[in-house]
Design the sequence.
């Protein structure tokens, strides 16, 4: 369960709903279960072009969980998730795979938040380098198969209908 105290030395639920170690465990578990591959925390790297999916959470904690994968890793996720050859993976398959990964991660994060919390639907999209990230978002980087991807938590937005994740194109 995430700590809700805002006293010195403790994490504020508004800013950090889940401990870093818990988020790392969640992401590793999702990648191992869904894609049958190991991932590990990595040094933060700048996001290049790829695929991002965002899931809103509303309730005791309101915010968004996003996952960003480089296109090559997103395609690999689709091949492993849907059991198709890489040459047969469509753009829709890639978006569906990243959407499902974001849904799995967000659902697992929701399970450690204090109730009540409600998950929104995943919103996957291809994104360009330089795409904006909401102010206050925390980014956590991971590495799988030699490729780096990120998971981000952005407090205070959720499924309000106001898009926090925008494309700077």
Sequence:
């Amino acid at each position: 369960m995430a700590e809700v105290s805002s006293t010195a030395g403790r994490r504020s639920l508004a800013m950090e709903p889940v401990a870093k170690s818990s988020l790392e465990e969640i992401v590793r578990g999702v990648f191992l279960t869904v894609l049958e591959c190991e991932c590990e925390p990595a040094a933060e790297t700048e996001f290049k072009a790829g695929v991002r999916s965002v899931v809103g959470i509303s309730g005791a904690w309101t915010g968004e969980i996003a996952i960003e994968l480089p296109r090559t890793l997103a395609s690999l996720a689709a091949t492993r998730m849907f059991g198709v050859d890489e040459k047969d993976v469509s753009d829709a398959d890639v978006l569906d795979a990243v959407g499902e990964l974001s849904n799995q991660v967000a659902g697992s994060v929701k399970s450690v938040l204090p109730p009540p919390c409600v998950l929104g639907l995943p919103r996957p999209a291809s994104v360009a380098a330089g795409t904006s990230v909401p102010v206050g978002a925390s980014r956590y980087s991971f590495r799988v198969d030699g490729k780096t991807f990120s998971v981000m938590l952005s407090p205070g937005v959720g499924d309000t209908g106001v898009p926090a994740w925008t494309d700077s194109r």
Remarks:
- The radius of gyration is 15 Å.
- Helices lie at 20-35, 71-82, 91-111.
- The longest strand covers residues 50-59.
